[in-house]
Amino acid sequence: MGDYLAINKALRDERAPAHAASADYGFDRFIGDPDYLSGVVRFDRPRLGDLTGQRGVHLQCHIGTDTLSLTRLGARMTGVDFSSAALNQARRLAECTDTDIDFHEAEVYTAVDILGLEAFDLVYTGIGALCWLPEAALWARFVADLLRPGGRLFIREGHPMLWSLDETSKPRGSSTWTDPPAVPSGSIRRAGSSGSSSPGASSMGPSSGPPRWSTPPARALDFFATAQTRF
Ligand SMILES: C[S@@+](CC[C@H](N)C(=O)[O-])C[C@H]1O[C@@H](n2cnc3c(N)ncnc32)[C@H](O)[C@@H]1O
């Protein structure tokens, strides 16, 4: 588990500043408009119900855009993530938007030790969170411990295999995979190979410009299956 966590955390630390600077996460929009909500929470809003005054914890809160959005819906939020770089960005966003959010750097399985038993009305998690965890049953036990009796767990997830497919597939060279590989460079092993590849390597995409994946679905699946077995 030690190696697994270290590799995963290194990846998250590396990505956090890029995510915070990207238009997709929209820090500028949060700062410019006090009513702005992330697309994720906007979608979830009808299902979340009234959050006014609720104590919520966002597990694997990343750079805090969804955590801030839940606060804007009236909840008193705590965010937990094990990436200090992600939390630096989350705290910066909270400060820039003058929002009070309690962020904790912690591994999810230790959250109860830090936050206490039955401290929350709501546990919120999702969008690429659960797939990174090695132990679902243990996670569920800790979630139950975080919730007060009658509290709610809200999960919004996708299946990693579905996410690896591009249903609008175009000819090679124009895929939607624009992220660098999901593990630090040099640590990806392709299935059935003992070699390694790096972001922007010629077999993966153009040799110049930002890292870009030109990966047809079959290769994406191959990569994803390999990444999953490593993690
Ligand atoms: C893909 S991000 C989630 C993205 C988030 N839904 C968003 O869009 O803002 C996954 C997050 O889980 C965190 N994470 C992964 N494994 C973790 C663990 N075992 N304990 C705590 N945080 C973890 C990572 O640091 C990262 O910020």
Distance between the termini: 9 Å
Q: Helical element count?
A: 9
Strand content: 5-15%
Helical content stands at 25-40%
Query: Which ions and ligands are bound to the chains?
Result: S-adenosylmethionine
Write down the oligomeric state.
single chain
What is the β-strand count?
5
Walk across the major sheet and give the strand order: 3-2-1-4-5
Summarize the biggest pleated sheet.
Answer: 5 strands, parallel
> Measured on Cα atoms, how large is the radius of gyration?
19 Å
**Overall outline:** globular
Question: Please, could you describe this protein's structure?
Answer:
The protein has about 230 residues and is of the alpha/beta class. The protein contains nine helices and five strands. The chain has a five-stranded parallel beta sheet with strand order 3-2-1-4-5. Helix 1 runs parallel beside helix 5. S-adenosylmethionine binds near residues 81, 82, 83 and 127.
Please render the helix and strand layout as text.
Layout: H1 2-21, H2 27-32, H3 39-48, E1 55-59, H4 65-72, E2 76-81, H5 84-96, E3 102-105, H6 111-115, E4 120-126, H7 136-146, E5 147-156, H8 160-163, H9 217-230
Parallel strand pairs: 1-2, 1-4, 2-3, 4-5
Helix pairs in contact: 1-5
Residues 8, 12, 60, 62-63, 65-66, 81-83, 86, 107-108, 126-129, 132-133 line the site of S-adenosylmethionine.
Briefly say what this structure is.
With 231 residues, the chain is of the alpha/beta class. Helices cover 39% and strands 14% of the residues. It has nine helices and five strands, in the order H-H-H-E-H-E-H-E-H-E-H-E-H-H.
